[in-house]
User: Fold this.
Amino acid sequence: MPIKINNQISLEFKLLLLCLEDNLYGSKEDEIIKACSKKIDWNKFQRLAIRHKVIQLIYVILKNKYAAYIPESFLKEMKTIFLLNSTHNLYFTAVIHKIIEYFNEDNIECVPLKGPVLSEQIYGDISLRVFSDLDILVPEENAFQAFNLLISKGFTPEFNLNEKQFEAYMNSEDHMILTLGKKKLIIELHWELSDRYLSKPFTFEQIKHQLCEYDFNGKKFLTFSREDLLVYLCLHGSKHIWENLELIYLIANLLKSDLDWEKSLLLARTTYCYKKLLLGLSLCSQFFNCNLPDKIHSLITAEPEIKKLDQYVTSLLLTPVENHIWDISKSKFTKYQFASLDRFQDKIRYFFFMALFPTNNDWATASIPGKYSFLYYFTRPFRLSYNLLKQKTRLIRKGFK
Assistant:
């Protein structure tokens, strides 16, 4: 564990990191046993594991290797959480299988993202991730077809849009949310993966020639190559300002594979998310001691903004659970997002895109016919200003400036 982190963290956070690093490489057994012998606040430890979305992994690690050093009552409570989440994951797995079947029958290419599929790919077990929705990527030209197909199969869209309205919606949004059943299982239908604010969108077209066939529970489907998955995970983590450790830990596990670094670097550069890739790798080294090639270390060091971004993310992740608020990082309109863009022209584009282009919240505020959808561009600045003022007021009241 890097010394600069070790000196800043609580005993509970240190134990969490030790368990995860031990799961990656082994060799942390003595340190974990020693930490468990100290005055661990097990309730706080559990809250940390939940907050960082590693509760499933932590339970399996502790149960399999360190049960003798853990309070029995704590392990029982963890087991209950684990079993409930595993049942949830099995249900989501069945749903994603059905969606892939629907798309295959309608000749729509697709790539399932995150959820149980990523859990199987990275951890080898669908039960080891915590997630609340399913994501699937389709080609842009098939997005409306896929949207209508899901509706015909009983899914309820966030907005009922005709083809013209859907085309207008696609100009400013990268996905559509649909729900299923009384439990409101959420599906995110993606046609783009970078929130539309990169000048070179990350789409199905970008990665289709590198897609691999993957066997998931006895059924074959398309998935990212390891190199493209690395870029996507860094892009996704950056989109959410690395708000939990699992976003970094997924990448750390992927780094154990043999990677063609030039392919990942090429994709990151051509889609202008090069800094996001380097930041994700820097965070892996920072939190989990990942052994990066000398060339990658040199590239990280050569980008002065990476260190500042790394420090900002670290400060968020190390904020105590009791004091932690995500109001700062929930908004896409942040200094972090601005600083993480590769080029000056992208920063300018990002500013205007966020200020003027309507979002799904703008669509939710009012339904405008497709041919008049340009009106959203006039209402967006007023709604954004109001929301930023409201957010700033809330932060000041809570002691943040």
In short: The two ends are 32 Å apart (CA to CA). The first strand starts at residue 111 and ends at 113. The first helix runs from residue 3 to 6. Residues 141 and 189 are 13 Å apart (CA to CA).
